[in-house]
Design goal:
By secondary structure, the chain is mainly α. Helices cover about 75% and strands about 0% of the residues. It has helices at about 5-15, 15-50, 55-75, 80-85, 100-115, 125-145. Helix 1 (about 5-15) crosses helix 2 and helix 3 runs antiparallel to helix 5 (about 100-115). The protein is elongated, with a radius of gyration of 18 Å. The N and C termini lie close together (about 10 Å).
């Protein structure tokens, strides 16, 4: 992403009330959804799938730890720092932009649901989701550099 694209995106969300409201809801609600859904998954595993419980506990925490260490080592600047443009929500955090810890957490918790084979997540094999991600991420990256 370059400065112009970042500035256009920030301006769009700051000037479009409906888009800003939708983004605000996503920004505020999704972390709580993950915060609630993960313990629910652990309770499910405790009662119905204890053989998988240790992995369901350790892998997400290991990912959080690994991501936290990696972002401290890399210490990449955030777009609003680099381009000198205030973020949509006025975030002021400096550095530690990459890798995104909340994205890594969301992905590993989603994968935990798949590995537990909870009926809500059991529509696909883990392989199906990983292949879709591996296909989508390069396309999204190509799209973002234009």
């Amino acid at each position: 992403m370059n400065r112009e694209r970042y500035e256009r995106a920030v301006t769009f969300f700051k000037t479009n009330k409906k888009a800003h409201l939708a983004l605000s809801i996503i920004y505020k609600v999704l972390p709580y959804f993950m915060l609630v859904s993960y313990p629910v998954l652990l309770l499910y595993a405790f009662h119905y799938d204890r053989g998988n419980l240790l992995e369901l506990c350790t892998f997400p925490f290991a990912m959080l730890f690994f991501t936290t260490i990696l972002r401290r080592v890399v210490n990449e600047t955030r777009p609003y720092e680099k381009y000198g443009i205030e973020s949509v929500f006025g975030k002021k955090t400096q550095g530690k932009s990459m890798p995104s810890r909340h994205t890594a957490s969301a992905f590993i918790i989603a994968m935990a649901f798949l590995s537990a084979n909870v009926p809500l997540a059991g529509a696909h094999y883990i392989r199906d989701v990983v292949v879709a991600m591996l296909i989508s991420v390069p396309f999204g990256w190509i799209m973002s550099i234009n």
